[in-house]
Amino acid sequence: MRDPRHSILFEPVKIGPKLARNRFYQVPHCNGMGHREPSALAGMRGMKAKGGWAVICTEEVEIHPSSEVAPSIEGRIWEDRDLFAHERVVNAIHEGGALAGIELVFNGPRTNTASRLPPLGLNSMPVASEWLEPLQGRAMDREDFRALRRWHRNAALRARKAGYDLIYVYAGHGLTLTQQLLSRATNDRTDEYGGSLENRVRLIRELLEETRDAVGADCAVPMRMAVEESQLELGLEKAEIEDIVGMLAELPDLWDFCMGSWSRDSRTARFSAEGFQEPFVKGLKRLTTKPVVGVGRFTSPDAMVEQIRSGTLDFIGAARPSIADPFLPKKIEEGHYDDLRECIGCNICVAGDMQSVPLRCTQNPTMGEEWRRGWHPEVIQPKKRDARVLIVGAGPAGLEAAHQLGKRGYEVALTDSRNTLGGRVSRESRLPGLGTWQRVADYRLGQIAKLDHVETYPASTMTADDVLAFGATHVAIATGARYRADARGRAHPRGLMISEGASVLTPDDIFDGVQLSGQVVVYDDEHYALGSAIAEKLAGEGCSVTLVTPAPLVSYWNQLNLEQGFIERRLVEKGVRIIARATATEIVAGRFSAQDDVTGARLDISADQVVVLASREPQLGLINALKERQAEWADAGLESVTLIGDAHNPGMIVHATYAGHRYARELDEPMDADAVPFLRDMPR
Ligand code: ADP
Ligand code: SF4
Question: Is 623 in the same domain as 604?
Answer without folding.
Answer: no
